[in-house]
Automatic annotation (TrEMBL):
Domain Methyltransferase type intervals: 33-124
Species of the source: Demequina activiva
Keywords in alphabetical order: Methyltransferase, S-adenosyl-L-methionine, Transferase
KW Methyltransferase (keyword) present: yes
Protein name: Methyltransferase type 11 domain-containing protein
CDD domains according to UniProt: AdoMet_MTases
GO MF terms, alphabetically ordered: S-adenosylmethionine-dependent methyltransferase activity
GO biological process: methylation
Classification lineage: Bacteria, Bacillati, Actinomycetota, Actinomycetes, Micrococcales
Length: 203
């Protein structure tokens, strides 16, 4: 496993979809919140796109490593998204990569919704458990993983992890439908799902 690489060479299962979702950031966006920022890979990408970024992680070591790599334009905080005081009017973009499964599902989604400005965008890459009815997805994930590893080595981040995730894919989909009406949920290979949502202007 590789742990020390320049940003453009880093790859793992979450980064594969993180980079895809970053293309959905509106050109009009000016502010961003990165929840569970780890070493700051996505936060640095958001800054390159011209956004003022607040990046949170509860792991002090991860924030220290992030600050050591680049901090211009990024407000790194050792903080819990559920309790941290943040922008009163919300952020234009809220990102959450491989972090939602560290939170209570309903409370976490509601908090992300609250922190999003009206008309703003939520971008989530998440992990969840498959049920026995979804074993075919596990076969797809294994095949995709083997193919991906033939093309490039995986970057292993040193931030804390939780495995297995406490939520099932069905639970995530149901909660997102309730809490973020109109959100787009997609089950992905590589043991991931993505969730995107634009907050209505009247919320």
């Amino acid at each position: 496993m590789l742990t020390d690489l320049p940003d453009h060479e880093r790859w793992n299962h979450s980064i594969a979809y993180q980079r895809e979702l970053s293309e959905l950031i509106p050109e009009t966006a000016r502010t961003a919140l990165d929840v569970g920022c780890g070493e700051g890979l996505l936060a640095r990408e958001l800054v390159k796109r011209g956004l003022a970024v607040t990046a949170l992680d509860t792991d002090a070591a991860s924030i220290e490593r992030a600050r050591a790599q680049l901090s211009d334009g990024i407000d790194y905080r050792i903080a819990d998204v559920m309790t941290e005081h943040l922008r009163e009017h919300g952020f234009d973009v809220v990102t959450c990569v491989a972090t939602l499964h560290h939170l209570d599902l309903d409370s976490g989604l509601r908090r992300l919704s609250e922190l999003t400005a009206p008309g703003g965008t939520v971008l989530i890459v998440g992990l969840a458990q498959a049920t026995w009815r979804e074993l075919h997805w596990e076969a797809v994930a294994i095949a995709a993983d083997v193919a991906a590893r033939r093309r490039r080595q995986q970057w292993e981040h040193p931030s804390p992890t939780i495995w297995p995730p406490p939520h099932t894919y069905a639970q995530v989909r149901e909660a997102a439908t309730r809490i973020m009406p109109g959100s787009v949920y997609r089950r992905r290979a590589l043991w991931r799902y993505t969730l995107t949502w634009t907050k209505p202007l009247d919320r």
